[in-house]
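User: Could you write out the 3D structure of this protein bound to S-adenosylmethionine? I've included everything you need below.
Assistant: Certainly. Input first, then the structure.
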Amino acid sequence: MEPHVAVENRYQSLDAWHEVDSYFTEVLIDEDEALVAARLSGSSTTMPNAEVAANQAAFLQLLVKMSGAKRVLEFGTLAGYSTIWFARAVGSGGFVCTLELEPENADVARRNFVRAGVLERIELIVGPAAASVADLVSSKVEPFDVVFIDADKPRNPSYLEAALALTGSGALIILDNVVRNGAVVDADSDDPRVIGTRTAAQMIAEHPELEATALQTVGVKGWDGLIVARRI
Ligand code: SAM
């Protein structure tokens, strides 16, 4: 085999993505015991291993800090791993509202919030996110600065609508898992998660008050990506 082919194959393999993620996570990411425990506790939820990777969580935290956000809304709590990163990003005067369907996941998350020392700045609402967010809209809560959409992907279009109802100018709206091993490019897909993502992407493209981009990611979570949109 020619040397350049070997090099190419090595860097296209899942093992290499893991190795690179592990390297940068070890060098750059400050995950304390509470975050490690929260990440590992994902195995006792209904969706093991579905939390964001540590380096992606740190990226989300940077977005919150760079935008000066103080109020974050999250669709999909799981064990609260990303929620803790958000809660630390907004600081002691900030607030994170996170929406989770499964009571057993919410129980795991609550224990993780206590361990991380951020329980008092988090509101965890248990139930279908569509209903929870409708209540937030009807009770006219203060607008959120950042919305992270990471729950059931078929409902991404309605979660995006809700995010628009709950944000103002300058807010960030982030959608996770938009690449799905490349499945997103299949316009004829009958996968409701792909349809939900493509519909939301089109809504973002057509919305006069949104500017956006999408980034692909490879690493410990395989091949995926996120859309980051900003409200003008
Ligand atoms: N954001 C979490 C993190 O990175 O640590 C991961 C969230 S996980 C990908 C998706 C979560 O959404 C699961 O906990 C699942 O139970 C929750 N979920 C699924 N359908 C939902 C719904 N209709 N309403 C609220 N939460 C839902």
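The pocket of S-adenosylmethionine is lined by residues 46-47, 50-52, 76-78, 81-82, 99-102, 105, 128-129, 150-152 (CB under 6 Å).
User: Perfect, thank you.
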